[in-house]
Write a structure and sequence with these properties.
This protein has about 200 residues and is mostly beta strands. The chain has one domain. The chain has two helices and eleven strands; from the N terminus they run H-E-E-E-E-E-E-E-E-H-E-E-E. Strands 1, 2, 3, 4, 5, 6, 7, 8, 9, 10 and 11 form an eleven-stranded antiparallel beta sheet that branches. Strand 5 and strand 6 form a beta hairpin. It is elongated and about 70 Å long.
Length: about 200
C-alpha cells in the first residue's frame, strides 16, 4: 500500500512540475511587422498556344488595428512586378509587363499561437488595381494593344492552402513552396516571411 501511495505521489509531483515549467515558459514576442516575398509562375503548353506568367511581390505586413482582431497582419506597403507572354494559334505574341503598388487587400496573415504555431492567409485573387495593357505582335508585322483582365495575386496559392503553414518557435519565419499541375498547366510559388521584432 505504501509503495502504491508513493508511486501515485511521484506521478502527481511530476505532473505539477511539468505544469509549472509550461506556465513559466514565456511566450515569444509577436513581430512588429513581417517582410514577405513571393515569386509566382504559371506556364501552359497547349497544341496551338502557350502562356507564361511571372509575378513577384515584396511587401511589408503590419498588425491590423481593429477591435476583435488579434495576431493578424495586413499589407501596409510593397510592390508587385509582373511579366506575361502568350503565343496564340495565329502566330501572334501577346506581352505585358510592369509594376504597381501592393494593395492592403492583397494579403492578410493570421497567426495561430497554439503549441505548434501556424499561419493562415486570406486575400484577393487578383493583384492589379486596374486592367493592364497588352501588346500584340503578329507575323505580318502588325502591332496593336488591348486590355487584359488583370494580374494574379502571387500569394493566392497560399490563400487556397487552407491547412496553413508552420511558423518557427520564435515567430520569425514562414517559408516554403507550392506546386500544382493539371492538363498542360503548371502553377508554382516560392514564398518567405521574416518577422521583425
Amino acid at each position: 500500500m505504501r509503495q502504491a501511495i508513493a508511486a501515485v505521489a511521484a506521478v502527481v509531483a511530476a505532473a505539477l512540475l511539468v505544469s509549472s515549467v509550461d506556465a513559466a515558459a514565456p511566450k515569444p514576442k509577436l513581430p512588429k511587422r513581417w517582410r514577405a516575398t513571393a515569386v509566382y509562375t504559371y506556364t501552359y503548353q497547349g497544341d496551338d498556344w502557350t502562356a507564361q506568367q511571372t509575378v513577384s511581390a515584396s511587401v511589408v505586413l503590419t498588425p491590423v488595428r481593429a477591435r476583435g482582431w488579434t495576431d493578424m497582419y495586413q499589407v501596409s506597403s510593397g510592390t508587385i512586378t509582373y511579366d506575361n507572354t502568350q503565343k496564340t494559334s495565329d502566330g501572334c505574341t501577346q506581352t505585358s509587363s510592369g509594376s504597381f503598388p501592393a494593395s492592403k487587400y492583397l494579403l492578410t496573415l493570421q497567426l495561430d499561437l497554439s503549441r505548434r504555431p501556424r499561419a493562415s492567409f486570406s486575400g484577393s485573387e487578383g493583384a492589379a488595381p486596374a486592367p493592364t495593357t497588352v501588346t500584340i505582335t503578329c507575323p505580318d508585322g502588325t502591332t496593336s494593344q488591348s486590355q487584359s483582365g488583370g494580374v494574379e495575386n502571387p500569394f493566392y496559392m497560399l490563400v487556397r492552402h487552407t491547412a496553413g503553414f508552420p511558423v518557427n518557435a520564435s515567430l520569425t519565419r514562414i517559408s516554403g513552396s507550392l506546386r500544382t499541375a493539371q492538363s498542360g498547366a503548371v502553377w508554382n510559388v516560392r514564398f518567405s516571411f521574416v518577422g521583425k521584432k
